[in-house]
Amino acid sequence: MVRGLLGALPLVLAVAAAQPGLGVMAALGGLLAAINDRPGSRRTAGLRLGAPALAGTCGLLLGSGATALLPHSTQPFLLPLVLTVLGLLAGAVSALGPVASGIGTQILVTTAIGAGMPLPEPGWQRALAFLTGAAWLLALRLLLPSPDDGARHPYRLGTERAAVASVYTAIAALLDATGTPAAPARRSALTAALDQAQDALLGPRLHPFASSSAERRLRARLDAALPLAEAATALFWAGRPLPARTVRGPLALADAVRQDTAPGPVPAPERDAPGLRALDASLLSALAVFDSAPGPVPATRAPRGAGARLRAARHRVTGPAGREYGIRVALSMGAATAVAQTLHPEHWYWLPATAVFLVKPDLGPLASRVLCRIAGTLVGAGLFVALAAVAAPVPLPPETGLVALAAVCATLVPLAMRHFALQTGVVTLLVLALVGLGGDTQATWNRLTDTLLACGIVLLAGHLPLPGRAGTVARGRLAVASQAATDYLGHVLSGSPDLPGRWALRRAAYRSLAQARAAVEVSAAELPPLARRSAGSAELTAVLERLVDTTTAAAVHADDAGTLPPRDSARLRALLGELGTLDHERTPVPH
User: Fold this and answer.
1) How far apart are CA 80 and CA 339, in angstroms?
2) What is the pLDDT of residue 385?
3) CA–CA separation, 453 vs 337, rounded Å?
């Protein structure tokens, strides 16, 4: 929230310099960067905020260039076509992941704004102002300390240290909940903590190697958590309540990571079961890592070459999920632009920009997004009208009140991100203040009608039957999770002594399962025409989770006994049979 307040500084300076149009574009750049800001390390913030900002700058140049090059008489026909093609490409690219989704969203939104928002400044100045606003917020993200930073050295791997510490805390929480109804949720929380820590330390960055002894030490401590997590999962699978002292070791390691110190003495767990013996061994191994000087960090996953990464990205973009999302975004953009240009050609950008945010698949179920968008827009527009009526008798320039309102809303954006309706209400207030500064004084009620039209267009495009198999997003995630679970099971059954390889496969299996469950839950919460597309996926996901949990327990038991116990083999065969039956029963639902 402090970053949001300081992010309004370019707007204040531009208005003070009698350049409100440039201030509006700078504020929009900061707003879209703030929406993309998420908890995480500073090294990943550059890509998460910077790449969409660069795409948004290109979108502004593209939009302003299109209106300058296309004859005015042909724009009502050609601009919808341009945005339809751009929507197809940006929608397909969004299937790559959250950063790509942000890139696709920003280039579509800013292309519509660049082509449709009437501002006196030339396109290159607007683009430069937009980039300046986003760069200012990114600089604040990199320079200001984060609440997640550790107690020591907040600028030196502070957020990364907090992420690794949360892994050990999640391990302790799982051990504490073992044998209780809360254990499955704690196991999911451990998966999320490991995902976040690996993204923080091993995610996108300028170079793939640890650059300092502190970073190498932190990566070694994250690697030391992997066998602890494996043992904790095996104990969760056994379902036996554990003594209270079992959690003290992981908690001591979490505090040592957070403070960047060596842990003191920790109580050893009991050793009367394979999982407890594995927990004791992994705890002793972790203590040795914490007490030793940082050395070369062994790779926990085989790096893929640029060619392999490009082939995987191309497969996701051109695959079923990329095609389906691209087509629906293209239909929404094209239809919204055509309708808006027909109704009010001078201020048509709001309708397609609204459609872009509604059609994004990573913001929850479509019907829920539409209802939240309508409610948030109504409340935000109503508050704007009420505030304008209250401020009318005040003897101050109208720009002062609009700038103050924009600053307050920018401060509230991070808080409003907790719920889509709240976010929509705050952003509506902020955007109405900005367009008021840009000279559009009749924006409020037009935004309401445009929002309702965008909701109808997106609902229609989202439920429109398309050729091919339905439910491609959830099915694709399940296919990836099934393959990852199969690879992990195969490695365990092979008896390979490659422990880092086994931990990497286990991590890949749990990460893909978490993504599959999220996609299935979103699909199940849709309206019946969409929910039917993923019928049976929740049962399949649950079986895959039990299969990976059982595989983890079997691996720990095999390490303890030297061979896979017959009971674990029987359970794995039963789960594989159940998985095959469910997969055979799942047939495409006709449109």
Assistant:
1) 9
2) 85
3) 11
Q: Using DSSP, state whether 283 is helix, strand or coil.
A: helix
What pLDDT is attached to residue 509? Answer: 92
Q: Which helix (H) or strand (E) holds 452?
A: helix 443-463
Q: Which residues contact 295 (CB under 8 A, 6 or more apart)?
A: 216, 220
Q: What is the dihedral of CA 205, 225, 302, 304, to 10 degrees?
A: -30
* 213-238 vs 158-177: helix crossing angle, rounded to 10: 20
First to last CA, the chain: 45
Instruction: Yes or no: say if 322 and 418 are a contact pair by the CB < 8 Å rule.
Output: no
Residue 376: CA atoms inside 13 Å, Cβ hemisphere, count? 25
Q: Tokens at residue 242, please?
A: 């554990």
pLDDT at 209 over 60: no
**What is the Cα–Cα distance from 63 to 80, expressed in whole angstroms?**
12
Cα–Cα dist 165/150, whole Å: 9
Task: Give yes or no for residue 302 having a pLDDT over 50.
Answer: no
300 φ, ψ (degrees, to nearest 5): -100, 0
Asked whether the beta carbons of 159 and 43 are under 8 A apart, the reply is no
pLDDT mean over 321-326: 80
Q: Of all helices (H) and strands (E), which one includes residue 39?
A: none
For residue 411, the surrounding DSSP H or E stretch is helix 398-416
CA 252 to chain centre: 30
Residue 215 in tokens = 């970073």
What is the distance between the alpha carbons of residues 65 and 58, in angstroms, rounded to a whole number? 10
**Mean pLDDT on 442-450:** 75
Q: Are the C-beta atoms of 134 and 53 separated by less than 8 Å? A: yes
Residue 490: both structure tokens together = 């195969």
Question: Which tokens belong to 116?
Answer: 């449709």
DSSP state letters, 273-329:
SHHHHHHHHHHHHHHHHHHSPP-PPPPSSPPPPHHHHHHHHHHHHHSHHHHHHHHHH
Give the C-alpha distances (Å, rounded to integers) separating 20 from 189, 369, 455.
46, 32, 30
Q: Which of 174, 173, 127 is nearest to 22 (CA)?
A: 127
Helices 42-69 and 98-116: crossing angle in degrees, nearest 10, is 30
Query: Taking the CB of residue 342, how many other CB atoms lie within 10 A of it?
Result: 11
Do residues 196 and 40 make contact, with C-beta atoms less than 8 angstroms apart?
Answer: yes
Instruction: Sort 55 into a burial class: Cβ within 10 Å, 0-12 / 13-18 / 19+.
Output: buried
Average pLDDT over all residues of the chain: 82
- Give a three-class secondary structure readout of 549-574: HHHHHHHHHHHHHCCCCHHHHHHHHH
CA-CA distance, 3 to 49, in Å (whole number)? 14
d(CA 335, CA 342): 11
Q: Please give the Cα distance from 519 to 526 (Å, whole number).
A: 11
